[in-house]
Write a structure and sequence with these properties.
single chain; mainly beta; Jelly Rolls; six-stranded antiparallel β-sheet
C-alpha cells in the first residue's frame, strides 16, 4: 500500500528544485563572463603555446599569442611580446599570457559585447614594472581602474567597476609607477580574466 506522505514529499522536493533552478537562471545569465577567452586557453591561429609574438607598430592593434586578444602600443619606438605559457595562477587553466613590453601604456586589449555597468576580475603576476587594468568604451578606457607594482606574487583584482560607460573594451597595460613617476616598461603574467554585467 502506497503512502501519500512519501509521494507528496518526492513531488514537493522535485517542485522546489525546479523553482530554485528557474529563480537562479537570471543570476546565472547575469554572471556570464563577457570576456571571450578570458583564461587564455585558446591560442591564436597558427601560434603554438610557447611561441613569442612580437609587435612594434605604434597606435594600432596588433596580434597576440592568444585568440581574440590583441595588443596596442601607445609608446612609439617600443616593443611588446606575448607568449602563452603554462599557468601558475590559482584556479588558472592550462595557459596564461606572458607579456613583456619596453614602454609605458602598452599591453593587451580585448573587445567584448557591451554592458552599461560591469565588474571585472583579473590575476596578474608582475616580474618587473607596474601593471594596470581597466574597462571602458573604446578609446575611453582607463588603464588605472586597478593597478599594482607589487612584484614576485600573484595579485588578483576583484569586482573592479568600469570607469567609463558603456563598457565594451578591456585593457591590461604597463603603467608608470604612480609613486615615483618612473618606469613604464613591464614584464608580467596575466590570467583569469572575467567581466560580468552588473544589474
Amino acid at each position: 500500500m502506497k503512502t501519500l506522505g512519501n509521494t507528496t514529499g518526492k513531488i514537493g522536493r522535485g517542485l522546489l528544485t525546479q523553482v530554485a533552478l528557474v529563480c537562479a537562471l537570471p543570476l546565472t545569465m547575469a554572471a556570464q563572463n563577457l570576456l571571450p577567452n578570458g583564461g587564455f586557453e585558446r591560442r591564436a591561429a597558427g601560434v603554438s603555446p610557447g611561441t613569442p609574438v612580437s609587435y612594434t607598430t605604434c597606435d594600432s592593434y596588433g596580434p597576440s599569442a592568444a585568440a581574440v586578444w590583441t595588443v596596442w602600443l601607445n609608446t612609439c619606438g617600443t616593443e611588446i611580446t606575448t607568449t602563452l605559457v603554462p599557468s601558475t595562477a590559482v584556479n588558472g587553466g592550462n595557459y596564461m599570457m606572458h607579456v613583456v613590453t619596453t614602454g609605458a601604456n602598452n599591453g593587451l586589449v580585448i573587445k567584448f559585447s557591451g554592458a552599461a555597468q560591469t565588474s571585472s576580475t583579473l590575476s596578474v603576476f608582475v616580474n618587473s614594472g607596474c601593471v594596470g587594468m581597466g574597462t571602458g568604451d573604446g578609446s575611453y578606457t582607463a588603464d588605472t581602474d586597478g593597478m599594482t607594482c607589487l612584484t614576485g606574487q600573484w595579485v588578483t583584482f576583484t569586482k573592479v567597476p568600469n570607469a567609463y560607460s558603456p563598457a565594451n573594451e578591456f585593457v591590461v597595460y604597463s603603467v608608470v609607477n604612480p609613486q615615483f613617476l618612473t618606469g613604464g616598461g613591464a614584464d608580467f603574467y596575466v590570467d583569469n580574466g572575467r567581466i560580468v554585467a552588473v544589474p
